[in-house]
Amino acid sequence: MQNLDYEFIARPRIIYGECGLEEIPGELAENDACKPLVIASRRAVQRGAGKTLIRAFRDSGCIIGGIYDEIQDYAGISLAREAAWLYRQRGCDAFIAVGDRFAADVARAANILVSEETDSLLPYYKGKTPARRLRSFILVPTCCTGASAAGRTIVTDNRRLRSDFYFPDVVVTDRRMVGACSPRCAAESAVLAMDNALWAFPDNGQNPMRAAFAHAALKQIAENLSGFLQRPGDGKRALPIANAGVLASIASANARPGIVRVLAEELEKETGIPAAVFIANLTPGALFLMQKNGLSAPDDLLLAAAGMDQYAATPQEQRGRQAVETVLELFESAANAIPEAGISRIPAYRLTEACKNAANREMAGFSMDEAMAVLEMAKQEMPW
Question: d(Cα 328, Cα 294) in Å, to the nearest integer?
Fold first, then answer.
């Protein structure tokens, strides 16, 4: 009998459905809170997300203490300090983040400042973790990656903070909030969610909980991706992709970061090109190198990506290769709406610096040479 020894944390309670926003006051009450500060991205507010949230609170007895909507494409300590000041001035007792990862990162940073009664995050950049549980934190994503459901935050020039305390208490995926994606935003969201799910699969036999989350996420993506990409503004089509993004993010938070994600994030820092663009371009080469190095995809990957009929019809010895091909088809369908990264046009010194920084990242299980090899493969036509 196999002896399983593993750790897995899935702290957020996931509320998924048509009327998830109306559940938020009850969730706040369970944590003795009734006056949240809403930290929202500017785009989300412009699309009406703030008004939708306010209407959901109408008959609840809860009061929204304020809406801080200065978040655009940056999560900085100055924004977190302003949000923390507003929280204290209005007498708030919880945080709700509405929007993309920047809104969630500012909310986390402000929560640390308030809960730890400090004005500086410097000790937390250096590895300090909160001494106690933070204030109640609810995440309402308006894009479909679900990336902010994990226990990490990035503020001010890509400084990373990681702790189990940073997981949101509740994640609410509501049809009214996730149905405002542009075609490119939809494609990038799908790529990020698939990447989280894909790289949580290796060695998942050692962690059945991680396997279950990754499997459920990729299955939902495979079943709904085509319709979502055709009509990304349809909240009903976006909802299962958003839920899959949350599940994939939690699975990824319990796994070692994949080489593609880490390298893409470092390339984003060097070039300003979104990480999702690099992920779409780097994934085929990374999967090819994985197979070339004798690492086979787990059978469960094919079952999640292609379904039971395809899985049963594929001979066991071919399932690993078929799984990779099926996953690549999913990535390709999304990548058609994402521009090329233009890796060959990026100065060599920037590529080298990104590979060095990626290999030196905490928990990175690859070398600088392996990162360079993935970049080189991205410039070639894959010999599938």
Answer: 18
User: For 13-178, which CATH class?
Assistant: alpha beta
Distance CA 52, CA 45 (A): 9
Q: List C-alpha distances in Å: 17 to 79, 194, 235.
A: 31, 21, 11
Each domain of the chain, given as residue ranges in start order, spans: 13-178, 183-378
DSSP conformation class of 204: G
Q: What is the pLDDT of residue 110?
A: 94
Q: In one letter, which amino acid is 308?
A: M
Q: What is the mean pLDDT of each run of 10 residues along the chain (384 residues)?
A: 70 86 93 93 87 90 91 86 96 92 90 92 83 90 72 67 84 85 81 89 74 92 90 83 90 86 89 88 86 76 92 90 90 84 85 92 83 85 48
Contacts of 368 (CB under 8 A, 6+ apart): 355, 356, 358, 359
Per-residue pLDDT tens over the stretch 29-49: 998 999 999 999 888 888 888
Q: What is the pTM assigned to this prediction? A: 0.88
Distance CA 280, CA 328 (A): 10
Can you name the residues that pair with 67 across neighbouring β-strands?
Answer: 38
Q: What is the pLDDT of residue 150?
A: 67
Domains 13-178 and 183-378 share a fold: no
Alpha-carbon gap, residue 224 to 334, rounded angstroms: 12
Q: Which residues make beta-bridge pairs with 97?
A: 39, 139
By C-alpha distance, which of 88, 137, 140, 143 is closest to 109? 137
Rounded Cα–Cα distance for residues 345 and 267 (Å): 13
* Residue 155: φ, ψ to 5°: -135, 150
CATH of 183-378, one of 3.40.190.10, 1.20.1090.10, 3.50.50.60, 2.40.50.100: 1.20.1090.10
